[in-house]
Design brief:
Helix content: 55-70%
CATH architecture: Orthogonal Bundle
Number of helices: 14
Number of strands: 4
Radius of gyration: 22 Å
Low-confidence stretches: 331-338
Structural class: mainly alpha
CATH topology: ABC transporter involved in vitamin B12 uptake, BtuC
Number of domains: 1
Strand content: under 5%
Protein name: Monosaccharide ABC transporter membrane protein (CUT2 family)
GO molecular function, one term: transmembrane transporter activity
Mean pLDDT: 86
Shape: globular
Keywords: Cell inner membrane, Cell membrane, Membrane, Transmembrane, Transmembrane helix, Transport
Subcellular location: Cell membrane
Pfam families: BPD_transp_2 (PF02653)
Largest sheet: 2 strands, antiparallel
């Protein structure tokens, strides 16, 4: 008589269970807890005015985070978003101050953003230059070109009543326009990633590039598409930031805080830097978390140095958690190596 012993797979590890879970709900829970702490320790935090201000300021980097999230889902990275956001905003206001109609200035800036997205995508997809270096270089090129060719003042004020100014003025059904605009971007991005063929292929490409290409997916055009989407959303985020601030300083040569915040929100929200994993809902959750955190840091009157230390620690923790949950080399995830 022969006895057959069925092979049983070991129970999933903590890493596996967390890696397969929807990180958005966890981050939303932490955000609610952070709000509770803020309400108990920070006078003025739990007010309608403060929350409206918090959400308005979160809208711009939330839009930026959506763009970079789509690139990361396709296994890339886009650091040019800061240069596009700042450079195109500066260029638009400089052209308007010289007498150019607003629509023409916006059209030129949009063309620049589109070209940057195409250049990034083509160099990454067809020339196979690492996306980190390509996008860092193009972002610097935009800032440098705008500064050299267009800027002749240290400050450009946004004209009242302009289209860009109206992005942050007024409300829709009582909801401030920046929040409505950001919500529309999140919904459209969620639909694109979840329900369109291109969105699903981008996720598949990020999960396993070789397999996606072997199945006939147009991986190179899809890579280009992700960078174009990111550049155009960066343009929109730059306009929204300028609209909220009412002006742009040309002595500021970097939107690094906006870039840093967008990247942190993306990673905290569960968009894996390994590609192919995460959701737009997670990006929304990460954006809300960072918005609440930034608001509390300001309300507590912490110096910019202390705020940078805290934000840097949060980003390092988020990247470390992502690397643990979604290791680049799956061999490091074997049981017994933790």
């Amino acid at each position: 008589m022969t006895t057959t012993i069925a092979a049983t797979s070991p129970p999933p590890s903590l890493r596996d269970r967390l890696g397969r879970s929807e990180q958005a709900y966890f981050v939303l829970g932490i955000t609610v807890l952070l709000c509770a702490v803020g309400a108990a320790t920070t006078p003025g935090f739990l007010t309608t005015g403060n929350f409206a201000s918090l959400l308005r300021l979160s809208a711009a980097f939330g839009i930026l985070a959506v763009g970079v999230a789509i690139v990361i889902l396709g296994k890339g990275i886009d650091l040019s978003i800061a240069g596009v956001a700042l450079g195109c905003a500066q260029a638009t206001l400089a052209l308007m101050s010289s007498g150019m109609p607003e629509w023409q200035a916006i059209a030129i800036a949009a063309a620049v953003a589109l070209i940057v997205g195409l250049v990034n995508g083509v160099l990454v997809a067809y020339v196979e230059v690492p996306s980190l270096f390509v996008t860092l270089a193009t972002g610097l090129l935009v800032i440098g070109a705008v500064d050299m060719l267009l800027l002749d003042s240290n400050y450009y004020a946004l004209a009242a009543g302009s289209w860009i100014a109206e992005l942050s003025n007024g409300s829709v059904l009582g909801v401030p326009r920046p929040i409505v605009l950001a919500a529309a971007v999140f919904v459209l991005a969620w639909f694109f990633v979840t329900y369109t063929t291109a969105g699903r292929l981008i996720r598949a490409m990020g999960d396993n590039f070789a397999t996606a290409r072997a199945t006939g997916a147009p991986v190179r055009p899809l890579q280009v598409l992700t960078y174009v989407i990111s550049a155009l959303l960066a343009l929109l985020a730059g306009y929204l930031t300028v609209s909220i601030q009412g002006s742009v300083q040309t002595t500021v040569t970097s939107f690094d805080p906006l870039l840093f915040t967008a990247l942190t929100a993306t990673v905290i929200g569960g968009i894996s830097l390994a590609g192919g994993r995460g959701s737009i809902l997670g990006v929304l959750a990460g954006s809300l978390f960072i918005g609440v955190l930034n608001n509390l840091l300001v309300l507590h009157g912490l110096t910019s140095a202390v705020q940078d230390l805290i934000r840097g620690g949060v980003l390092i923790a988020a990247i470390a958690l992502d690397s643990w949950l979604h290791p680049r080399d799956e061999e490091t995830a074997k049981s017994g190596e933790l």
